[in-house]
Request: fold
Amino acid sequence: MFMCVLLSGAWQAMAYPIDGATETGITRLEGYRQAQLGRVAGNSLPAGAKLSSDQIRLRMQEHDRAPLPATDQMLTRQLIYLLGDEADDYSISLLDLSNPDHPVYAAHNENIPRNPASVGKLVIMLSLFQSLAEIYPDNIPAREQVLRESMIVADAFIHKDHHAVPFWIPEQMRLRKRKLVEGDEANLWSYVDWMVSASSNAAASMVLKHVMLLRHFGSAYPVGRAAENRYFEQTSRKQLSNALMVTLREPVLRNRLNPERFRQGGFFSRVGKQRVPGGSSLMTTRELMRFCLLMEQGQLVDAWSSLQMKKLMYLTRHRIRYASSAALKGAAVYFKSGSYYKCEAEAGFTCKKYSGNKLNLMNSVAIIEAPAGVSQLHYIVTVTSNVLRKNSALAQQRLATRLHQLMQGLHAKHVLPQ
Reply:
């Protein structure tokens, strides 16, 4: 069998768009900013990826307690029609927030759980910001300081990972993309950015390791390497496993999400799983939608944390899978995806990327604001699929195009051309 796994005033200035390198210490942002000025070859971004920091905001804060509305049957039928003959292999939730006073929700197979693959990294991000809020409940500058000044050095927990992450080399005026190696040092904010934007399993494992340290040491974090090592070497595997479960489960519960429908089980690296045993991971499109809605309402942890998480999801890198649709070039896209496929021997079948014949999961979370900066269309899509033997990345790209056209048609009288 073949298997591949792809897996208070001041805070308003903090940013993850490409003008945010100085404030956050996410150095790759400066490389992308220089690229848009024509000073660095390649790495050009579509119009929708060029919003400035102050243009990214939480768009549903005035509706901060509104739940998901009842399912709109007409929009649901249109959604199922877009999926065609493969509708049974999809789960999808759609929330149209273009008129925030009258949101419209449609869903198909919304409660079917699937392995989230890299979408599960959203749980680690949530855990980080929940932990910071609990340690520094009334001190946002202290939270910022932890993110900006805590330095992480990659260690054995990164093994193994195939994802490349971008390093900005200012003296050479170039962005270099490569896998993380032991000894790579960057601040916590950079590692979170690599986890979300580049979907690095190595970065995710380092972030999760440090969230566990943050929860253990509290306001004493960050601690030295010797203290880090003692904690993981002298604490029993059972105790570490229990601490991991608390790290990943409590923030979900605290934010009124269902851990049986929104769950990340453990580390994203082989070594991480060996040293800290975890459990299973699963998510539904409905609970992913609730996560996104709470974020837009400023209710994930708190308004500051919600905004930071939304900025971390703002796509300022090469767009892939669902987000790669040409129809979304002019849109701001806040995105996370994950895939997990398996192949087995089958006559006449050749195993290819994203095209497994035994399992072929493709999951996407996308908040769309179009046109970027104007945002007359505002909707959220969460989708999981398991369509065997077909390139699921291309299939979701096509779905994104058709769904965006549907949304444009529904709001044709009010949408500017892109």
User: Anything to note?
Assistant: The domain at 2-410 is CATH 3.40.710.10 (Beta-lactamase). The two ends are 46 Å apart (CA to CA). The chain has one domain: 2-410. The first strand starts at residue 2 and ends at 6.
